[in-house]
Write a structure and sequence with these properties.
It contains 6 helices and no strands. The protein is elongated. The mean pLDDT is 85. The chain is an all-alpha fold. Helix 1 runs antiparallel to helix 2 (14-27).
């Protein structure tokens, strides 16, 4: 049954989804009902939107993160995680100072974007 449910989740098209769903329905109707309760549109590949989800398509944030933690990677696991936690707390504190510095409802970026 696990294989059938995984096959359902990895369905590439709605036709594949319906065919896999029919197999589950024939195998075990109770499982079919449980699957349908979980809203397949939220977890099945056949219903995922293809393409970009926002106007920014870049990996600068990933590169920035990798650059930041590169110093920590050389350490053993616990010191590495402690270093990453410390770096993350510093980053959050800096952003808190920036966020507390403006009085408007939106950030300057959002105001500029809306204008």
């Amino acid at each position: 049954m696990k294989g059938l449910v995984l096959q359902l989740a990895w369905s590439y098209s709605e036709a594949d989804f319906r065919a896999n769903l029919e197999q589950i329905k024939e195998w075990d109707f109770v499982v079919y009902q449980d699957v349908m309760k979980q809203k397949p549109e939220t977890w099945c590949r056949a219903f995922y939107k293809i393409g970009n989800y926002c106007e920014d398509v870049e990996n600068n944030s990933t590169e920035s993160w990798n650059s930041t933690v590169s110093k920590a990677r050389e350490k053993m696991i616990v010191p590495m995680l402690e270093t990453i936690a410390r770096l993350t707390m510093v980053c959050i504190a800096k952003r808190d100072v920036i966020a507390g510095g403006h009085e408007s409802l939106c950030t300057p970026y959002v105001i500029e974007y809306l204008e």
